[in-house]
Amino acid sequence: xxVFSLFLLLIYSMFSLxxxxxxxxADHEWxxxxxxxxxxxxSKKLKTDAFSGTNGILAGIATDCADALYDIRIxxxxxxxxxxxxxxxxxxxxxxxxxGNSTTMFDSIxxxxxxxxxxxxxxxxxxxxxxxxxxxxxxxxNEINSGVVYIVEWSLFRKNNRHSxxxxxxxxxxxxxxxxxxxxxxxxxxxxxTKYPRFSYGSSPFGxxxxxxxxxxxxxxxxxxxxxxxxxxxxxxxxxxxKKQILKEIRKKLQN
Length: 256
Prior knowledge:
Layout: H1 3-19, H2 32-45, H3 65-79, E1 85-87, E2 98-100, H4 112-126, E3 136-138, E4 149-156, E5 159-170, E6 176-180, E7 191-194, E8 207-211, H5 233-241, H6 246-255
Antiparallel strand pairs: 1-2, 3-8, 4-5, 4-8, 5-6, 6-7
Helix pairs in contact: 3-4
């Protein structure tokens, strides 16, 4: 083989590799081990400057509240070779039902980290508080811990508003710590709310929720196994105590 032919083969090989590139390759599957590890990771390693700092895959990314939740889950999934899969954004329907790290939409980007950041930018542009319910499920009260997301809706001047948080964990007084970005979308430090977030929730599907595993996306929410954390317990409690008391009651149960 002459030098020119070898050069063409090399170019073809590089093109073929990038043309088939996933955003990243998942070597593992989500299960209780990885959920517990994600919980530990959020508790110990998630910092308020995850987006506003200079280190890490999320550094310099502009977010609103929902963006931050998606992006944090993406970061952990990427760094631990796990899949990140959600319901397909509206722009990709009806051809696609689900969408995630195995997509080749960004295969023209050879550098993997840049490819991941392009994937994050796409997710941030297409997803939000109106879609996160489809990608998460309600959890049992004893599952409320680091990594669980909290979503609320309230009405102001006849306009419905939504906000979302990630549970960082507990402080020294065993009060829940809530981290959140906000609107408008910009590069910012995550805000910290302690004890109670800014707003309570008054109905399903709002409240405390966990990210669905890829297999959960293909079944009805009610069919997600209880061993994965699924429960409507918080909504049964809500019916008993009402919106004004629900967070106080959950706090009592968590502290006991």
